[in-house]
Design goal:
Purple Acid Phosphatase, chain A, domain 2, Immunoglobulin-like, 16% helix
Length: 529
Amino acid sequence: MAGIVMISVAEINAQDAPKATPAKVVKPEKTPDVLAQLLRGPYLQVATSESIIIRWRTDALTRSVVTYGTTEDGLTLQASDPTLTFDHKVKLIGLSPRTKYYYSIGGGNGDTLQKGPDNYFVTFPEAGTEGSYRIGVFGDCGKNSSNQRLVRDQVQKYLGDKPMDAWILLGDNAYSSGTDPEYQEKFFNIYKDDLLKKYPLFPAPGNHDYNDFYEFKATAQVTHDIAYYQNFSMPENGEAGGVPSGTPAFYSFDIGNVHFLSLDSYGKEDNESRMYDTLGAQVQWIKKDLEAFKNTKRGWVVAYWHHPPYTMGSHNSDREGELIKIRENFIRILERYGVDLIICGHSHLYERSGLMHDHFGMEETFDKAKHHIGTSSALYNGTDDSCPYIKDPETNQGTVYVVSGSAGAMGRGQATYPHNAMYYSNYELGGASMIEVNENRLDLKWIASDGEIKDHFVMMKDVNKSEIITIKKGESLTLKASFVGNYTWNKSKETNRSITVSPTASKTIYEVEDPQSCLKDRFEVRVTK
């Protein structure tokens, strides 16, 4: 038709970062003659305690308008970008921490593409804030398979009225070559009605995202000219926490007192180095980021990427060069900084180690007595030897390694399956993982495609406290257990985490334990005149 200017999606994706306009009162405008149709989204990116990016795609060139507010019927604020585009990115700024916002998307002039009770998000708490947080983990999900849908539905069923704060992707997000049509069919179309519109997403790339089956994959590793980087926005400037990386390939962010690092185990930096090259740009940034976190904050550190250092599933970490180099050269750096949890995909199964340290060799060199810290299963379910993994506050030593690569793809086991380092392994069912943090307690649950939680472990830090407290005669004080769980006090029938006491003796010992006697705090209260 005459007068229509055609602009390609690639050209639109090459535009600069979205422009944000200050919030303002919405004024009704006239309805346009032609309405664009929604092709993709909405989906939520680069969430922080004060901002978020909302993205979507349309089949016609339109402006980008988001109306929002703290009630479904009170969308009185607006942010927009007047640029005509197919791929829309609008950044909302000036938001309040830990607040629920409803939103609608459209092109202006009364054009609303989507709104409703499920179009909402909750801003993150301020960085470092202790609280209860829930983060979903999906590895190798983009298969458009029956397993992918089963896992999605079981995660939704598990969540119920307990929403996630965010979810992360472990790579291979769209098979087989990470093209834009594959992303549409095998990722966005699968999650568009539930997870994407409500929960911020923080991805990591895998080898299939780098055009793995195309002959020019080696070029893509260098140029990063792939749909993954066009389809997702990342907090590369440190706006979501951590040290700015200056690249969307790897970055960090905070959700309360949990610090995340999303890493790239397949792409190249500076045209040659990769994640396992310890002098490369990614490793140098990781050291700066973890050093900054260690010096300024206390909390949990979770790192995730695609290729696992330990696996005996559809991939073999004793035979594949990438996995060997990551294990031999790279993970010792993360262990040195006390990273608590490392999660990878690539191998299409679920595997979970004990609390480990200092194992960088082949499977046959793994020695539980040497490389596992303690013998506990960490199931924390009343069975024998199931106490939580407890990280020593002085050394901060020990890391749990998880492979969660069956949210879409399904795999098999190697001849030596399961890997000697793993406490639990499962390739027969698909599944996704859920990280649940409550202050200084971290739980990880593997939700299988049959709806059962097949594996679960608990890790704690800064527990088993011993204190001497001095008060004056006649004063009262409140004692609080250092751990999150159930409680038995030696001098009280109360089962709460905190008790208020008014001792009269010159010295009184109060102790609180969990029912399994895994944890114990001791308070020596001295009374002076």
